[in-house]
Amino acid sequence: MAEFTRLQNCLALIRLRNPPVNAISTTVARGIKESLQKAITDDTVKAIVICGADGIFCAGADIREFKVHKTFDIQLGDIVDEIQRNKKPVVAAIQKLALGGGLELALGCHYRIAHAEAQVGFPEVTLGILPGARGTQLLPRLVGVPAALDLIISGRHISANEALKLGIIDKIVNSDPIEESIKFAQRISGQSSQELQMTSDMVADKSSALGPPKGYTSKATIEFFFYLTVPGLCCGM
Ligand SMILES: CCCCCCCC/C=C\C=C\CC(=O)SCCNC(=O)CCNC(=O)[C@H](O)C(C)(C)COP(=O)(O)OP(=O)(O)OC[C@H]1O[C@@H](n2cnc3c(N)ncnc32)[C@H](O)[C@@H]1OP(=O)(O)O
Questions:
Q1: What is the reported pTM?
Q2: Quick one: which of 12, 23, 80, 155 could link to 108 by a disulfide (CB 3.0–4.6 Å)?
């Protein structure tokens, strides 16, 4: 599930909860979508923080569900688009791990604050799939194409320090990243939404040289690749 909490000072907190690693199941994905809707439509909410429960952000898609479903009626990519379309700033508070779909969710946010011991990565390649929820578009926009390809093709996890140097995360903290993200969200929510929108539009314009957000891989291609490559899902193999 994803828990929605209305905090003091005009903030909303969305907390992923799915032990042991807060993986994104269909229930978690629905919870994030519904929580976002609440936060976006509540005029008193000025900024949003997304975090994970029990000291971990998210280890990606819930691989237990890969075994039981062939298609999903909810797409993480649509949630990432919704975060990016919305005018309120969204901060990802990364504890321990942001992998696969978890990293895509964080990349969709406007800011990422991670604990110094955290690790991020796209391990999809080890499962024979691609980061299909905007990861292949958002990562190169942040770090450039060669570094993005290296991470996506190798599937390696990198440290918060390397992620900071590459530009994947914005800030490293030794304290609780959720508390730090709340403080940061409070600070930026004081700015006018017009200023924030202008800034995010300018950033989007600047990075449009890398192509439109949905440009690299069509949904059909991802699904085709997915069914061909995940053992047991293709033609009942
Ligand atoms: C499928 C649902 C669809 C829902 C709607 C759409 C959402 C999906 C959208 C996007 C999809 C993106 C694709 C991906 O994200 S693919 C990437 C998936 N993630 C991984 O491949 C990570 C795999 N796990 C690991 O690398 C490690 O387990 C790690 C998280 C680093 C933890 O390592 P370690 O500390 O050594 O501990 P264990 O390996 O023993 O794991 C601890 C327990 O956690 C369970 N686990 C780990 N990862 C997942 C996961 N992704 N989903 C579910 N469960 C996971 C693991 O089985 C252990 O459980 P247990 O203690 O019960 O054995």
A1: 0.88
A2: 80
